[in-house]
Specification:
- By secondary structure, the chain is an alpha/beta fold.
- It has 10 helices and 14 strands.
- 27% of the residues lie in helices and 27% in strands.
- The strands form 3 sheets. It has an 8-stranded mixed sheet with strand order 1-13-14-9-8-5-6-7. Strands 2-4-3 form a 3-stranded antiparallel sheet.
- A hairpin with a 2-residue loop joins β10 (254-256) and β11 (259-261).
- The radius of gyration is 20 Å and the shape is globular.
- The termini are far apart.
- The protein binds S-adenosylmethionine.
Length: 323
């Protein structure tokens, strides 16, 4: 039976009963944590588990990202403004308040320091640079390359799984004049990026931050934040607290609060809006958007109703440094 899906967006509150039921499921499945040696094993071998995942799923893992450009117009083509680099504003008022130039579709033409970026790195000549972190098989990168034909666009993408990066590089749509895929471990703060600091217009994190150890998230977000131009934006879509995937975990799969290991060894965290706000603002970014996207799934056959819970964030690097 195909489940019915109702879209309930923008902070629709759960009833107390729903909240209590979800909380008790999580208490139950978190009541027994994996022992430290097992936890260590999943951390040390994280890359291998994801490599195995991509070797099994290969291109079958393609997902239709129909929401990508409506939720994140920063990734869609936009006339003119990208020649000068953009930053995103929710409305024209906000743009006016900052005394910026034209503002259309959420994009503002902003002169930024990184515009005249010179140097010898992939994408150095581009005027609008996007980096997707944890790109997997390219579910976001290829739709961007297909849809956005701006001549100034350059898309970087990275993953710590060499199997994933191989899939991206061997895809017929991979065009090295517009794209650069590289292996990078987000949790390794010694691993260099191929582009300089303050060179990116957009950093995209789609279901990737949830895959790393919670203790390592802040360092990873802060490093990525430094790659953004002033006015550049970080976009995130990821699992929210009490998503049905969290409620379905069984006892014995929990690593720490709201962090679980799947049957295939890959791990997943379930965020609250406040936790993400803290991560981004600590990294020096300012909030443009932080919302919960809840979708009620009703399976009439099984008489079950459950929610998909995703969080979507947009945070911007300030135009003037914050102290
Ligand atoms: C749930 S998948 C999402 C993939 C892709 N963003 C998508 O939405 O299709 C999580 C991805 O994060 C990658 N990943 C996990 N930990 C990582 C790390 N420390 N550094 C870089 N990538 C990582 C995995 O290899 C995997 O491709």
């Amino acid at each position: 039976l195909v489940p019915l899906i109702f879209h309930n967006r923008d902070n629709v509150e759960w009833s107390e009963e729903q909240e209590a039921s979800a909380r008790s499921k999580v208490q139950e499945n978190s009541s027994q944590l994996l022992p430290p040696d097992k936890q260590e094993e999943y951390e040390v071998n994280a890359k291998r588990y994801w490599d195995d995942f991509y070797k099994i799923h290969e291109n079958g893992f393609f997902k239709d990202r129909h929401w990508l450009f409506t939720e994140f117009p920063e990734l869609a083509p936009h006339r003119n403004s990208r020649q000068n680099g953009d930053s995103l504003h929710e409305n024209k008022e906000e743009c006016k308040q900052e005394g910026l130039g034209s503002c259309e579709n959420g994009h503002c033409s902003v002169e930024t320091r990184a515009e005249s970026q010179e140097g010898d790195f992939p994408g150095a000549a581009a005027s609008y640079r996007v980096l997707e972190v944890g790109c997997g098989a390219g579910n976001t990168v290829f739709p961007i390359l297909q849809t956005n034909n701006d001549p100034g666009l350059f898309v970087y993408c990275c993953d710590f799984s060499t199997a994933a990066v191989d899939l991206v590089q061997s895809n017929a749509e991979y065009d090295s004049s517009r794209c650069f895929a590289f292996v990078h471990d987000l949790c390794n703060d010694q691993s260099p990026f191929p582009m300089p600091e303050e060179s990116l217009d957009v950093v995209v994190l789609i279901f990737v931050l949830s895959a790393i150890l919670p203790d390592k998230m802040q360092c990873a977000v802060s490093r990525l934040s430094r790659l953004l131009k002033p006015g550049g934006v970080m976009l995130l879509r990821d699992y929210g607290r009490y998503d049905l995937a969290q409620l379905r975990f069984k006892r014995g799969q929990c690593l720490s609060d709201n962090f679980y290991v799947r049957g295939d060894g890959t791990r997943v965290y379930f965020f609250t809006q406040d936790e993400l706000d803290h991560l981004f603002t600590t990294a020096g970014l300012e909030k443009i958007q932080n919302l919960v996207d809840r979708r009620l799934q009703v399976n009439r056959g099984k008489q079950v109703t459950m929610y998909r819970v995703w969080i979507q964030c947009k945070y911007r690097r300030p135009l003037t440094p914050q102290h």
